[in-house]
Design brief:
- This protein starts with 6 loop residues before the first strand and ends with a helix.
- It has twelve helices and ten strands.
- It is an alpha/beta fold.
- It has two domains: 130 residues, HUPs (Rossmann fold), CATH 3.40.50; 142 residues, HUPs (Rossmann fold), CATH 3.40.50.
- Helix 3 crosses helix 5 and helix 9 packs across helix 11.
- It has a ten-stranded mixed beta sheet with strand order 3-2-1-4-5-10-9-6-7-8, with helices on both faces.
Length: 288
């Protein structure tokens, strides 16, 4: 299965990070040679339009034939998401602060609201740079999602194009079976053997999926975690100095109660360890 982002959109504002956002967007666009849409919501002047044109020329996007600029007014989240739906966008790129304050956490920043509501894949850039560094370490989470193969396909594609050092694939150890066995008075040897079998089962499942995905040249490390997966995943990405964390979209929308009683991915949204790519291929699948 080849996940292809045929149409990419970038939501931008006239801020000090605009050039970095456009530079990173151009980098991602080249991975898949996608159509590109730039979305701005809010007031803007002729001077700002000229500034945008100059930046596009500097980055090399001004002569790109599949580039469209959309100017919108209204609620930023609503207008961005409606534009993505109307334009059949496969991947939306946006910038975000690495860590939210408590006020922003409960009220929600634009990027976090988009992450929770988007019906397409979303890439959130924590520190867009005009001189993007190599993506040396990628962490791909394959838990709590129905899009495991899409997550790994995307991770392998980016890893190969970036000549990354490592692709770390994270799985969660299913502790339920171990706990049940422990309550049945199994011996230490039996418990250790059961744990080893569970670990091997998880690794084997990943290896079987990778057999269907081109990943030549990539060093793959399968890591099994236990505990609160969102928190552990964030900590693991930080320990590995990951430049990109890829996860699958949850199977349901987040509600206010998910933020009060924290959903695993809310740990990531509130305190991003690095750039975060949420894979949601529902649109690609429906478009056949």
């Amino acid at each position: 299965m080849a996940l292809l982002f045929k149409k990419i959109a970038a939501a931008f504002a006239f801020s000090p990070t605009l050039e970095g956002l456009l530079t990173e967007t151009a980098r991602v666009q080249k991975y898949w040679n996608s159509e590109l849409i730039l979305i701005h919501v809010g007031e803007h002047s002729q001077q700002e339009e000229q500034q945008l044109g100059e930046l596009l020329e500097k980055i090399g996007l001004s002569e790109y034939g599949n580039l469209k600029i959309v100017w919108e007014k209204g609620n930023p989240v609503d207008r961005i998401l409606k534009t993505c739906s109307r334009e059949q966008v496969d991947l939306l790129i946006a910038g975000a602060l690495k860590k939210e304050s408590m006020v922003k956490y409960y009220l929600g920043t634009i990027a976090r609201k988009i992450l929770r509501k988007a019906d397409c894949s979303v890439l959130v850039l924590t520190s867009p740079s005009i001189l993007p560094t190599q993506i040396k370490n990628i962490v791909a989470n394959t838990e709590d999602t129905e899009f495991i193969e899409e997550v790994l396909t995307t991770a392998c594609t980016i890893g190969q194009k970036e000549n990354s050092n490592f692709l770390h694939i994270v799985r969660e150890i299913k502790m339920y079976g171990l706990t049940m066995s422990a309550t049945e008075n199994c011996t230490e040897e039996e418990y250790a053997a059961l744990r080893q079998n569970l670990v091997q089962d998880e690794i084997t499942e990943v290896e079987e999926i990778l057999l269907r995905i081109p990943h030549e040249g990539l060093k793959v490390n399968v890591k099994l975690l236990s505990g609160k997966s969102g928190f552990e995943l964030s900590q693991f990405a930080q320990r590995k100095n990951a430049e990109l964390l890829i996860v699958g979209a949850p199977q349901r929308k987040f509600s206010f109660f998910d933020r009060l009683f924290t959903h695993d991915q809310e740990y990531l949204f509130a305190d991003l360890p690095c750039n975060l790519l949420v894979i949601n291929p529902r649109k690609e699948v429906s478009r056949g």
